[in-house]
Amino acid sequence: MASKKLQQFLQTNLEDLAQRGLLTTIDVIDGGNGPEITIDGKKLINMASNNYLGFAGRQDMIEAEINAAQTYGVGAGAVRTINGTLAVHRELEQKIAEFKGTEDAIAFQSGFNCNMGAISAVMKKGDAILSDELNHASIIDGCRLSGAKIIRVKHQDMTDLEAKAKEAVDSGLYDKIMYITDGVFSMDGDVAHIPEIVAIAERYNLITYVDDAHGSGVMGKGAGTVKHFGMQDKIDFQMGTLSKAIGVVGGYVAGSKELIAWMKSQARPFLFSTSLTPGAAAASIKAIELMQEHPEYVQQLWEKADYFKTELKKIGYDIGVSETPITPVIVGDENLAQTFSKKLIENGVYAKPIVFPTVPLGTGRVRNMPTAGHSKEMLDRAVAVYEKVGKDLGIIH
Ligand code: PMP
User: Fold this and answer.
1) Which pLDDT belongs to residue 305?
2) Whether residue 301 is found in the same domain as residue 282
3) Residue 9 lies in a domain
4) 5 in a structural domain
5) Is 186 marked active-site?
6) Residue 254, CB half-sphere, CA atoms under 13 Å: how many?
7) What is the pLDDT of residue 17?
8) Are 243 and 311 in the same domain?
9) Are 35 and 133 in a shared domain?
């Protein structure tokens, strides 16, 4: 029988969550996560996935996964440091390093535990981490786990970064100081100011960490935001996920030989959690090869995204400051954002609301992720739905 204490806790808190509209509802998709999805028998244009290049459902990716399963089995059988390092894992790490322009790389089972493991492997009590205030939850949790002092930096504010870096150095309180930022911010689609960050880091001797979950496969011909700026020798940690544009699952850090060697003996999810499945590793290698051999896939993503953004702007929407395919349609009010998403879905466009506390209060939005897999016809249909629903709700006129 469940403990009374637990029952009471769950009952009270579930009711509270439900009353505040924060209880998660989860839609179940029939079939794969492509440019169109089916939910409860209804086909919808999918504007909510991170499958930027449409790789998740590609036949050659599926074959890479199946072939690896046939060679290695479906599971690695152990953690990496015991005997769960299969040839395909090292091949993946070498491929990532080659693509990112670094000496080596380390692969984790997800982007989330990569951040948890990598940050805490290097940063400790007695250190300080300067962290952009809009960084992803996994960065925040990784920073907390590290025990280092966390200093929030105003979003993309280089003056604030410099002032706080100076203050931290001058205080003499800290051994190491890191600046950590998303490469592409997932809610607004703005891009980290890598050259300015590098200049400040050099002045104050900061360790630099860029989480490029949304930049990998998108920026720098697929190789990411750091490579886009040609700064792969200047950023210490190029972190990324295999779950978004790559279309599979997993996370990694690309960096110097010494950094990777250190993490391989210190990062706890690497040491104590079973390695990536061989199929996931092999499909991820295939995805990187596809980007290297076919630059047109990344180009198609940008063309589709530019088209979609232009059409939404033309009909009067505020799509914020996005410099990447991430396309927020900002409506302000939190309840309006919820209703907007509900009506879009009813009318055939699957786009989810994003509200406080994920984004600042009063900046509620519906977020869209156009992908290379969307046809122009799908995007036109989506824009027509946006026009109808926006007019019905008085968001546009
Ligand atoms: N970092 C950022 C910036 C992300 O957007 C995400 C995914 N939501 C992650 C890390 C975690 O990646 P994963 O889904 O591969 O665990």
Assistant:
1) 98
2) no
3) no
4) no
5) yes
6) 31
7) 87
8) no
9) no
Q: How far is the CA of 128 from the centre of ligand 1 (A)?
A: 23
189 Cβ closer than 6 Å to some ligand 1 atom: no
> Is position 51 within any domain?
no
Are 324 and 288 found together in one domain? Answer: no
Residue 314 vs residues 387, 391, 394: alpha-carbon distances, Å? 10, 14, 16
From 49, 146, 186, 275, active-site residue: 186
The finding on whether 216 has its CB within 6 A of some atom of ligand 1 is no
Closest CA to 370 of 293, 288, 306: 306
Q: Which of 50, 51, 108, 112 to mutate to test the pocket of ligand 1 (most atoms within 8 A of CB)?
A: 112
Provide the CATH number for the domain around residue 379: 3.90.1150.10
Residues of the chain with pLDDT under 50: none
State the distance from the centre of ligand 1 to the C-alpha of 243, rounded, in angstroms: 8
Ligand 1 contact via 111 beta carbon (within 6 Å): yes
Q: Report ipTM for this prediction.
A: 0.99
In the prediction, which pLDDT does 1 show?
66
Decide whether any atom of ligand 1 lies within 6 Å of the 182 Cβ.
yes
Q: Which residues of 234-243 are buried (b: 16+ CB within 10 A; e: fewer)?
A: bbbbbbbbbb
pTM confidence score: 0.96
Residues 245 and 174 in one domain: yes
Number of domains in the chain: 2
Tokens standing for 81? 């440091």
CA atoms within 13 A on the CB side of 244: 28
- Same domain for 66 and 179, yes or no, is yes
Distance 111 CA to ligand 1 centre (A): 5
Residue 132 sits in a domain of what CATH number? 3.40.640.10
What range defines the domain where residue 340 resides?
17-46+295-392
* Of 115, 241, 246, 273, best ligand 1 pocket probe by most atoms within 8 Å of the beta carbon: 241
Give the separation between CA 395 and CA 340, rounded to whole angstroms.
9
